[in-house]
Specification:
With 314 residues, the protein is of the alpha+beta class. Helix content is 47%, strand content 11%. It has a single domain, classed as Endonuclease III, domain 1 (Orthogonal Bundle).
Amino acid sequence: MTGQHLALPRPAGFSLAAGSRFVMNFAASQGGEEAPALNLAFALDRTWQPVGVRLREDGDTISAQVVTNPTGAGDDAIRTNLIRILNLHVDSDPFVAIGGRDSVVEHLRRRYPGLRPVQFPTPWEAAAWAAIGHRIRITQAATIKQHLSEQFGRRTAFPGGQVLDSFPGPETVLGLTAVSGLPAREFETLTGIARAAVEGALDSEHLLSMPPADASAELQRLPGIGPFSAELILVRGAGAPDLFPANEPRLARAMTALYGTDDPAEHQRIAQAWQPYRSWVALLIRRWLEDETHEIARGATARDVPPPDFAKQK
C-alpha cells in the first residue's frame, strides 16, 4: 500500500458499479469486478507512470485508494487521469435532458442507470488497441494485449484478491523486436504509433484542444490509423464527448434497429439532438447492441438486429 487516498467528485446520476460492470465486460479493459467498486491498473498520460487504484463510492465523493505507485506519481496527476477516464468532470446527468428529447435514449438511460463512458487510460492505449485489433477478432486482440501487459506492464494485487497488469507505455514497446501473436505488419504499425506517442502526438489535452474533425485528420497521418481508428482514439482514448462515430459499422446497425432507418445522413441528423454528448449516447447504444446480440463475446457479427418494442419505427 502506498498510503495515498484521493477524493474525487461523484456527479449526479453517476454509478461506479455501472462503470465497473462496463469495464469488466469490455475485452480490452484492465479492471472491473462484481462489486460496487472499481479496480484500475494503468499508466498515466504523458509520463506513463504505472499505478494501481481502487475506487469506491463514499457519500458525495469517490474514494480512490492508490495501491501501487512504484515511481511516485503525484496526487494531482493521478486525480486528473482518473477524472478523465471516468468522465467525472461533468457535474450533472446529461442523459436526463437528452432523454427528454429522444425516447430511445430515455429508455436506454433507465436500462443502464448511472453508466458513463469509461475511457481507455490514455489515447496511446486506445491507439495501441486499434493497431493490435486490426483485421482480427476482438477476443484474439484482447489476448495479445493482455500478454503484453503481463510481460511488460506493472502488476497490482488489489484488496479482495484481484490481480491486474497495466498496459506498458510506448517507450517500453519501442524496445521490443516483436510481440507474440501480432503479425509483423501490425507490429510495425504499433511501434510507429508508440513513436508518435513519445513525440506527443497522442496527448489527450492536445487532441481535445482541437475540433474533432481536425483532431481526426491529424491522427490519420499516423501509421495505420484510418477514420475508424481515429474516432476510437478520440472517443475512447482522449474522451471527446461530442463526436458521433460515423465509421463504426456496429453503431450503424444498432441505429438502424433503434430508429428504423439505415440512412447514415439520417443517423447523423438524429444524433444532433444528443449534443453536446453524442459520444456518450453512442456508448449506451453500443452497450444495448452487445446485450441484445452478444456478438463481441461470441466473436461473430449478428447481421440482423431485431428492433425492440421501444424503438422509433416508421
